[in-house]
Amino acid sequence: QSDSPPPGYKAGIKITMVQNERSPDAIESTFYLQHDRSRQESRYKDGRPIKGSGVSVVRCDMRQSLYFAPDSLTYTARPYPPPRVTEAGARAWGLRTTPNYRTVEPTLRIETNYNDTGERKEFFGFTARHIITTRRVIPLGDRRSLPRTEVRDGWYINLGRTSCEQQYAVETRDDPVIYSSWTVENVQTVTTGDVPDPAESRMPAEEKDMSWQTVMLFDGSTKEVPVGGSERHITKIEEIPMDPALFGPPAFNAKTLGLH
Fold it and tell me: What pLDDT is recorded for position 212?
């Protein structure tokens, strides 16, 4: 008996990841990756579907993204990458490329630091880098809210694949941002440390999120208290032959509402 895959099948990487494994509502996500296409879907670890959750597919070869919504038996197709934004194009459509701040002076400062600890560890044959990302949200001026700290502690592997998704991130990182006409908060952002390369195909082999909120005590002093957290980790990475139908429109039945 031949071990060769069926005609049309091509090898790809299948990754299974679990979030909050100890929770009764632990979520299992599956990623299917080939050099010019990808698919992502999630469900509860016990097999239950997640209400409102769909399947996302990016087809670099077709320059298209697809989103399947099983609840409504519909799917949406859009160009990928999306059309690029230019200053001239934004002006022609009457769109803003500068924010309409509520105040002249910044009212919020967001500091993000990336720290590559230099530690390395093996996961499923891939070398992972230990990176700790710390994000501080600091109110400025006469705002009455108090600071918040968020820490993401993870081990990240580079799958060594470059797709149109990474290429799009590189090409558009200096594109102008589109803003609505509504007033927005004047936020000052500062990024330091070992800032990740957007072209790198980085995926968390293990990752934990933790948050602390500064609170005011009765005596007027302040204290940081934990306010939440989550964790996720890869449980399996395997190279398998993949059915081309994984990356195409779904085979819905006669109730299909159609292509939107």
Answer: 96
